[in-house]
Structures are given as C-alpha cells and as structure tokens.
Amino acid sequence: MRTAGASARIDAVVIGASAGGIEALSVLLPVLLPGFRAAVLVVVHLPRERPSLLADIFTQKCAVPVIEAVDKEPVMPGTIAFAPPDYHLLVDEGPQLSLSADALVNFSRPSVDVLFESAADVYGTHLMGIILTGGNSDGAAGLEAIRRVGGMAVVQQPETAQTSLMPASALQRVPDAQALPLDGIATLLRTLNPGDRP
C-alpha cells in the first residue's frame, strides 16, 4: 500500500458522515474559499422519506457553490455536491455523477462505501476520503478502497466525534489514515490548494 497521496494533486474530496454530521460539516465546509478547485462529494445519512435541506443549509454557510447531486451531471470542480435522500451517489467515468436506487448498503442509502469505492475507481491517487462522526461502520470499506489505490485517507479522531463508531471502524480498517480533530481536518482542507500543483 502506498503512502497517502501526499505528493499527488487532489482532484476530488469525498466525505461521509452520519449522526452529528451536519455539525461537523458546518466546521469543515465553510473553510473552502472561492478558487478551491477540487470537487467535494458528500454523503450524510438522513431519513430516506423526507426531502434533504442540506444544499439550502450549506449554501448559506459556504463561499463555494453547493448543490444536491443530479444524475448524469458532470462532476463540477470547486463545488460541493450532497447525495439526495434515498439514492446512492456514485462517480462514473467522465467524471460524472450517478444516482442509484440499488439495495441499502450498511443499512444506508445513500451509502458512504458506495460513493468512496466508485470515486476511488475514477480518481485513484488524486482522491481524498474523509470519514466523520457516525453510528455505524459505513465508509470503512470505502476508505480502505481509497487507500488501496493510493489516495489520501483522513478520519475524525473518534474521541472528538459526537458518535465515534464510524471513525473508529474506519481506523480499524485503515490504521494509517490521518486521524485529526475537526479543526485539523479544516486546516488540511484549507492548505490543500488542489489544482495548483503540477
């Protein structure tokens, strides 16, 4: 397994969260400034039967565009895209977004694993995966897939998470992931400067 893609340009950041995720994302996503060039794709476990207000909530908080993902639309650099309720969010070649109503994965749709594994196939070493607070193990296998292709793996320190099971499960599967508190992850994102490296 290669060292986390420290020297690789990061073209996409995928983020997974569950219980406590909106609060955690409210620390991370507002640090992204205009000119941030990576696409940011986010899965948050939400009730499947209700519309999501995440795009509306984070449009008010963020300096970069925020959307709800739409099937077959291109992945937009410098834009945050949230998975809609009750659909898996995937990345296809192009890269473009894809929505799927396939079976639940880890009791979840959208599933963090589904997003992370599909993004790893497309972006390889140019991908960063971030696992935040949550109450199940969704995302652990996906983060392992990102590391397997040489991407960068980041996990919220479990002891700082509102619900520690999701980040703890990810660290168990990917022990060489960078484990950071939210402010440390925010600093990492702020200094990423994706697209500015050769």
Automatic annotation (TrEMBL):
Xref: InterPro entries: CheB_C (IPR035909), Sig_transdc_resp-reg_Me-estase (IPR000673)
A GO term for molecular function? protein-glutamate methylesterase activity
Q: Give the enzyme class.
A: hydrolase
Instruction: List each copy of the CheB-type methylesterase domain by range.
Output: 13-189
CDD domains, alphabetized: CheB
Catalytic residue positions: S18, H45, D138
Q: Does the keyword Metal-binding apply?
A: no
Keywords, alphabetical: Chemotaxis, Hydrolase, Membrane, Transmembrane, Transmembrane helix
Looking at the record's lineage, which domain of life comes first? Bacteria
Transmembrane regions listed in the UniProt entry? 12-33
PROSITE patterns, from UniProt?
CHEB
Tell me the Gene Ontology biological-process terms attached to this UniProt entry.
chemotaxis
Q: What EC designation does it have?
A: 3.1.1.61
Family matches, as SUPFAM superfamilies: Methylesterase CheB, C-terminal domain (SSF52738)
- Reaction(s) catalysed (UniProt annotation): [protein]-L-glutamate 5-O-methyl ester + H2O = L-glutamyl-[protein] + methanol + H(+)
Q: Which GO terms describe its cellular component?
A: cytoplasm
- What name does UniProt use for this protein? protein-glutamate methylesterase
Q: What is the lineage of its organism?
A: Bacteria, Pseudomonadati, Pseudomonadota, Gammaproteobacteria, Nevskiales
